[in-house]
């Protein structure tokens, strides 16, 4: 048994410790956000956050995860109450097929949690590991900028705004 | 079932419904009246398109599939408009051999023309029938009734809901040929911004793709592929692998090899072990990559003259000649192909992201040796496919393995390297062009030839499903056929839209296929537009005329002129733009297939002299898709098309050697990444209310490639005629 | 180390001071010229190839990506030395440098204004480059796209901020004599020697350095250190390679960044082999032949059958890990994080990539290169093809990296375990973030 803390909830999973987190999230815990794209750390479709860092869940065996905080797109908000990045992706209509998007959002989330006012170059460098084949890049970048603005404004004391739940 | 619907996407309707619908499957018309608009001609029954339930729920059916192009939203908009309903109350059922019309493939930017047109007319007619019924029940003239939010209202305040009205109506009327459509001037939904219905679920982790399906008792499978086409499995000791944890079954049929396991990771681990244990021999010889274009041109051809015009012209003073080349390219979906299949009670159900559920069913029937009626193919969204990728083959894998393990749903997803090496590529193409200019810079002669394989090896028969090849009794693919003009395959857009009174265009169809090929976004249009629009710039330069002016000089089609002028104006083409050093501007135009959307692209590139690295800095596009349904959807498609085409144009080529395909992953087949994305791509949609819908999804693939090549010429004074415009190639052309 | 080098530095200051006194140290400025633009195309082309051998573009890569604009620091034990802008911009670059000024910089390590350069710029090697070749490089650089970017000035701590010190350093450590031809060796070997000892400045990374940062001439090519990576020894006795490097293997590695009997070119070496892909084939072969005369002095490595057997044996030995090893967390990490590429049946292995049993970073005396690669990965430039590895800095903790290193070392080599692994990994991470 390995215990995994996913979006704040602890799960006991009985799997081979070598199993990459991706398959445990999807097949054991029944989540859909993180996707298989390459299994080689080249595309970022599987990106989740691990202790504040964006990581490839396809190459992260659960053996290394005991006691660490895992955050997935399911932890950022719901369809009824999307988080700021999710809302920004909806507002910018930043998806075509959308297969890459959950990974995109998680990688951007890691940046915005670290840096509230990222420069364009920082955003692009951060997003470099993640691929989108539909060519949605322009909108993804716009959504990240928009979310950064929303999150910054929400952080101004005295301003009432819902940012996350 | 519960697990599925619990977090099912908004509006996915029945797409993930597991059991057969209890509703009867609609018979296809045997003698469809030919004059009915769009796909009403294949399915004239209104209830095949729009159904109103007694509780007022409205369901719309389409035989087309959502491929990430936003078709689901656009079709809902159309139905809502004509039914005078809020889009939110409509559920849409997409391609499903158990429920929807046979609309063939979702391809060639046909969805709006075929399905959109059918739904528009069917919805208008359903509303007209409901209105008539209300008029007779309320005893008033139909003209005195109004419709809002699913209710028909009389002036005196009495009203009847659609659901109430539908009860007494015959459920299965046939569409009439005269249908009054809503006046475009009164549209409230079509052409207006409507957020895509699928995005909220996709950004919050809902089950949205076939990859996300999880059925009770589902098992995971992986195929093991030969190292190259035609290699056979000479030796395999799988005894140790059979006992690996979770392994249920190793399936072997001739050289077809796969493993089924309880867990996905277990299936992958066992697949790798099999891969390592298997000894393969032989296989088809691979072509020599360095000589591929010569090879293509030396193979036997079937020629057809697709344009032959002659007119009295001014004498030529200048003749130019050029040869343009495009290597094999791959679809490269971010999510490798996937399917789920289950054989239960003699019925094979296959959830697949195929582009054509009916043709796929026919091919599967042959492969599985089952009657088509016993197979149900349900389209379930996958990662963007951009054409014929591994979707149908993955469906074949899943169905074969479900046959080997009856009762249990089997999910197969390809590995990245399998997708990259086994998907059908877009063919390598050669285009040769020669043209002459008169003294005043008019094109007085145009000779063009294009050499290409087929662009359609979709599953017409079981033998076109790749997994069938390795089996002990392999099926033979039906022979490749050219796609005839006016749509064309390798010769798509081979005929310029320009005024060329003397012109000769030959399509050299090459039946032999050195690598596996099929349809990819734009087909031959990408290369033909690259060639024609690069050459237009070469001619303009020879004539000493600005490239945009030169195009307009040869363009009388008013809608074409509009997009050209709009893109040039938005870009600021006239302002003798003083671009920074190393930057250049490029222009290109095409009307997709000469039948679809008009698109013009003006863009700026930066070329790094030292490395030859090219980046698109900004782009302005103008597009005319006829009546715009979802303006933002069009913008999204055009932007995405431009960025994707930039990636094809700057980086992409399938690589191969004697051992097989070597571009197995993203390190050997690099594509565009964020740091190289343009700063901005703006799209200007020229809306044409009331005009027919024109397919948009592939409109910028071609123009982008030529605009980039033209901009590189402007920036670095090098004309590159071979794709991709890789940094090595650009640097080599620049020299030191 | 630091205190010792400061003491030695002071000693040199004395030496330098007396040298200055003797009038040796003072160098005049060379007058500015208007940027020359006209050069023979063939000369420029030759210069381009020589500049690639000299790796100019690597150290002088712009901090913002503008080629030759400089600005990137080279970390030395004495502090960061910033590469200058060597584009022909008259203000930020070397546009006002005459050929004489450029030659003096290359041969003597003195800039146009008469200031001493730090030997992070390897003039101690470039001094061996013929005047003709320097002229070609000058022609090449003077025809680059000018970049206005001002590279940051280098500020080393006292006493190293006294540039005059370098006069003493030069007197002690710089040998201006040309690379001696060895008539017993063939032309390719001699060409290789000229390129390796001169422009290629291979010893600058692959030799150990003394406390004053000078190459240890008594032990050339026995391995050095650069930018947090080990530059492996190139002599037969010091090379960590599992199978001796032959000229053929070196050629493939240098030219294509990968040899199937060794590994991919990584770390600072990655850029070197990238540059060498633009150098004439004969020159790369010459370099390979010269270096192979060190790595494989008696030419035994080239005996193919033995070699194939050796490779096969190496790879086979690594196939079945002992049961006790399979129980470790390193084994689980390897299976989940590494085997998708480096395990049997993985796609990369199908492409003929070398087994880890052949990679120098796993057989090396220190775990430095293996740690660097695991933490930060390996990636080709934008749009380029090439070996790829994702970094694991975000997903693996120091002890987890240590566990997988232990496993790799045990499973893929016959060498003793690396000591103090976790500390080693920790230090690399700290250096990277500082
Ligand atoms: S699936 Fe993990 S990086 Fe591609
Ligand atoms: S939206 Fe389709 S891959 Fe990114």
Would you mind describing this structure in some detail?
The complex is a heterotrimer of chains A (165), B (736) and C (434). By secondary structure, chain A is of the alpha+beta class. Helices cover 35% and strands 13% of the residues of chain A. Chain A has a five-stranded mixed beta sheet, with helices on both faces. In chain A, strand 3 and strand 4 (53-56) form a beta hairpin. By secondary structure, chain B is of the alpha+beta class. Chain B folds into three domains: 2-204, Aldehyde Oxidoreductase, domain 4 (2-Layer Sandwich); 210-282 and 331-422, 2-Layer Sandwich (Aldehyde Oxidoreductase, domain 4), CATH 3.30.365; 429-455 and 490-734, Aldehyde oxidase/xanthine dehydrogenase, molybdopterin binding domain (Aldehyde Oxidoreductase, domain 4, 2-Layer Sandwich), CATH 3.30.365. In chain B, helix 2 links the parallel strand 2 (58-61) and strand 3 (90-93). In chain B, helix 9 (357-368) runs parallel beside helix 10, helix 12 packs parallel to helix 16 (701-716) and helix 15 (631-651) crosses helix 16. Chain C has 434 residues and is mainly α. Chain C folds into three domains: 21-173, no CATH class; 180-207 and 236-305, no CATH class; 307-433, Cytochrome c-like domain (Cytochrome Bc1 Complex, Chain D, domain 2, Orthogonal Bundle), CATH 1.10.760. Chain C is built from 20 helices and four strands. In chain C, the strands form two sheets. A two-stranded antiparallel ribbon of chain C has the order 1-2. Chain C has a two-stranded antiparallel ribbon with strand order 3-4. Chain C is globular, with a radius of gyration of 23 Å. Classes of the chains: A alpha+beta (165), B alpha+beta (736), C mainly alpha (434). The complex binds FE2/S2 (inorganic) cluster (2 copies).
Which descriptors would you attach to this protein?
heterotrimer; B: 736 residues; alpha+beta; Aldehyde Oxidoreductase, domain 4; seven-stranded mixed beta sheet; five-stranded mixed beta sheet; 26 strands; 21% strand; globular; disordered N terminus; C: 434 residues; mainly alpha; Cytochrome Bc1 Complex, Chain D, domain 2; 3 domains; two-stranded antiparallel ribbon; 20 helices; 4 strands; binds FE2/S2 (inorganic) cluster
């Amino acid at each position: 048994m390995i215990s995994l803390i996913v979006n704040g909830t602890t799960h006991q999973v009985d799997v081979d410790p070598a199993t990459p987190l991706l398959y445990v999230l999807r097949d054991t815990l029944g989540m859909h956000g993180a996707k298989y794209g390459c299994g080689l750390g080249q595309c970022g479709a599987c990106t989740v956050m691990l202790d504040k860092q964006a990581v490839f869940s396809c190459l992260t065996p659960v053996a290394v995860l005991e006691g660490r905080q895992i955050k997935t797109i399911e932890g950022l908000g719901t369809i009824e109450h999307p988080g700021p990045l999710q809302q920004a992706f909806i507002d910018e209509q930043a998806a075509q097929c959308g297969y890459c998007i959950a990974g995109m959002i998680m990688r951007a989330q890691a940046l915005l949690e670290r840096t509230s006012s990222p420069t364009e170059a920082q955003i692009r460098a951060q997003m470099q590991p993640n691929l989108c084949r539909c060519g949605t890049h322009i909108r993804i970048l716009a959504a990240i900028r928009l979310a950064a603005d929303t999150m910054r404004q929400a952080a101004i004391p005295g301003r009432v705004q819902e940012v996350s739940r | 079932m519960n697990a599925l619907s619990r977090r099912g996407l908004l509006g996915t309707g029945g797409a993930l419904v597991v059991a057969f619908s209890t509703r009867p499957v609609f018979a296809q018309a045997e003698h469809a009246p030919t004059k009915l608009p769009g796909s009403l001609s294949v399915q004239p029954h209104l209830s095949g398109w729009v159904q109103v339930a007694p509780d007022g729920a409205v369901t719309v059916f389409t035989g087309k599939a959502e491929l990430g192009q936003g078709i689901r939203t656009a079709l809902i908009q159309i139905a809502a408009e004509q039914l005078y309903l809020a889009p939110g109350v409509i559920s849409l059922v997409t391609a499903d051999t158990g429920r929807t019309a046979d609309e063939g493939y979702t391809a060639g930017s046909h969805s709006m023309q075929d399905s959109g047109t059918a739904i528009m007319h069917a919805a208008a007619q359903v509303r007209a029938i409901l209105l008539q019924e209300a008029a007779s029940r309320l005893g008033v003239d139909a003209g005195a009734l109004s419709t809002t939010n699913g209710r028909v209202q009389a002036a005196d305040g009495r009203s009847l809901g659609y659901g109430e009205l539908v009860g007494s109506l015959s459920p299965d009327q046939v569409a009439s040929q005269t249908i009054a459509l809503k006046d475009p001037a009164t549209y409230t939904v079509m052409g207006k911004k409507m957020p895509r219905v699928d995005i909220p679920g996709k950004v919050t982790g809902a089950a949205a793709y076939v990859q996300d399906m999880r059925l009770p008792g589902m098992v995971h499978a992986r195929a093991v592929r030969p190292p190259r086409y035609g290699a056979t499995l000479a030796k395999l000791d799988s005894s140790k692998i059979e006992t690996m944890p979770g392994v249920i079954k190793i399936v072997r049929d001739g050289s077809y090899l796969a493993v089924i396991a309880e867990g996905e990771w277990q299936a992958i681990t066992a697949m790798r072990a099999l891969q390592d244990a298997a000894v393969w021999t032989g296989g088809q010889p691979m072509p020599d990559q360095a000589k591929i274009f010569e090879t293509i041109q030396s193979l036997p051809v079937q020629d057809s003259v697709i344009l032959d015009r002659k007119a009295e012209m001014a004498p030529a003073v200048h003749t130019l000649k050029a040869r343009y080349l495009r290597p094999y390219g791959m679809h490269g979906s971010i999510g490798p192909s996937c399917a789920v299949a289950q054989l239960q009670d003699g019925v094979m159900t296959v959830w697949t992201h195929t582009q054509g559920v009916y043709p796929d069913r026919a091919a599967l029937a042959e492969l599985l040796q089952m009657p088509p009626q016993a197979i149900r193919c349900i389209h379930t969204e996958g990662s963007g496919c951009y054409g014929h990728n591994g979707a149908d083959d993955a469906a074949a894998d899943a169905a074969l393995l479900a046959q080997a393990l009856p009762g249990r749903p089997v999910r197969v997803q390809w590995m990245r390297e399998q997708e990259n090496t086994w998907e059908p590529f877009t063919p390598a193409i050669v285009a040769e062009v020669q043209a002459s200019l008169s003294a005043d810079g008019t094109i007085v002669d145009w000779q063009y030839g294009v050499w290409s394989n087929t662009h359609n090896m979709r599953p017409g028969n079981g033998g076109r499903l790749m997994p069938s090849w390795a089996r002990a009794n392999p099926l033979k693919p039906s022979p490749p056929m050219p796609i005839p003009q006016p749509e064309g395959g390798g010769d798509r857009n081979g005929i310029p839209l320009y005024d060329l009174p003397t012109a000769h265009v030959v399509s050299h169809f090459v039946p032999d296929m050195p690598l596996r090929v099929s349809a990819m976004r734009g087909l031959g249009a990408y290369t033909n537009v690259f060639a024609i629009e690069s050459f237009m710039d070469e001619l303009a330069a020879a004539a000493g005329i600005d490239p945009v002016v030169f195009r307009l000089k040869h363009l009388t089609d008013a809608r074409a002129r509009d997009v050209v002028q709009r893109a040039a104006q938005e870009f600021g083409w006239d302002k003798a733009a003083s671009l920074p050093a190393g930057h250049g501007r490029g222009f290109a135009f095409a009307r997709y297939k000469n039948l679809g959307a008009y698109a013009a692209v003006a863009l700026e590139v930066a070329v790094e002299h030292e490395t030859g690295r090219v980046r698109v800095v900004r782009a302005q596009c103008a597009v005319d898709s006829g009546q715009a349904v979802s303006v933002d959807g069009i913008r999204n498609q055009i932007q995405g098309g431009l960025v994707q085409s930039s990636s094809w144009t700057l980086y992409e080529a399938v690589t191969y050697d004697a051992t097989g395909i070597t571009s197995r992953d993203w390190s050997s087949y690099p594509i565009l990444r964020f740091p190289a994305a343009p700063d901005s791509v703006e799209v200007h949609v020229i809306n044409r209310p009331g005009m027919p819908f024109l397919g948009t999804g592939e409109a910028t693939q071609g123009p982008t490639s030529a605009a980039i090549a033209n901009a590189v010429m402007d920036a670095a004074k090098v004309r590159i005629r071979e794709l991709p415009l890789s940094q090595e190639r650009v640097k080599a052309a620049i020299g030191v | 180390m630091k205190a010792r080098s400061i003491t030695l530095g002071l000693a040199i200051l004395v030496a330098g001071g007396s040298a200055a006194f003797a009038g040796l140290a003072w160098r005049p400025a060379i007058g500015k010229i208007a940027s020359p633009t006209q050069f023979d195309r063939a000369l420029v082309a030759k210069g381009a190839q020589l500049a690639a051998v000299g790796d100019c573009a690597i150290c002088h890569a712009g901090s913002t990506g503008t080629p030759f604009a400089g600005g990137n620091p080279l970390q030395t034990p004495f502090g960061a030395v910033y590469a200058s802008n060597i584009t022909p911009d008259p203000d930020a670059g070397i546009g006002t440098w005459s050929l004489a000024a450029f030659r003096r910089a290359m041969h003597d390590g003195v800039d146009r204004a008469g200031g001493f350069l730090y030997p992070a710029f390897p003039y101690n090697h470039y001094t061996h480059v013929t005047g003709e070749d320097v002229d070609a490089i000058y022609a090449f650089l003077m025809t680059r796209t000018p970049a206005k970017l001002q590279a940051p000035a280098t500020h080393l701590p006292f006493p190293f901020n006294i540039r005059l010190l370098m006069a003493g350093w030069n007197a002690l450590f710089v040998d201006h004599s040309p690379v001696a031809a060895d008539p017993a060796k063939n032309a390719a070997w001699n060409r290789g020697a000229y390129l390796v000892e001169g422009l290629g400045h291979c010893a600058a990374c692959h030799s150990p350095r003394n406390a004053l940062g000078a190459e240890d001439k008594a032990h050339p090519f026995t391995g050095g250190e650069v930018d947090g990576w080990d530059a492996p020894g190139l002599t037969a006795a010091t090379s960590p390679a599992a199978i001796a490097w032959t000229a053929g293997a070196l050629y493939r590695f240098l030219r294509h960044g990968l040899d199937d009997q060794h590994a991919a070119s990584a770390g600072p070496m990655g850029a070197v082999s990238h540059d060498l892909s633009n150098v004439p084939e004969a020159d790369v072969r010459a370099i390979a032949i010269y270096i192979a005369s060190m790595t494989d002095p008696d030419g035994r490595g080239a005996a193919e059958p033995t070699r194939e057997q050796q490779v096969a044996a190496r790879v086979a030995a690594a196939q079945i890990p002992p049961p006790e090893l399979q129980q470790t967390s390193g084994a689980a990490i390897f299976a989940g994080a590494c085997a998708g590429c480096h395990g049997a049946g993985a796609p990369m292995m199908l492409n003929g990539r070398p087994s880890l049993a052949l990679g120098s970073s796993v057989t090396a005396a220190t775990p430095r290169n293996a740690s660097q690669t695991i933490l930060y990965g390996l990636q080709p430039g934008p749009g380029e093809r090439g070996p790829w590895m994702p970094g694991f800095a975000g997903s693996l903790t120091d002890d987890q990296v240590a566990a997988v290193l232990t496993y790799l070392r045990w499973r893929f080599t016959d060498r003793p375990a690396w000591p103090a692994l976790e500390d080693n990994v920790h230090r690399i991470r700290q250096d990277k973030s500082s």
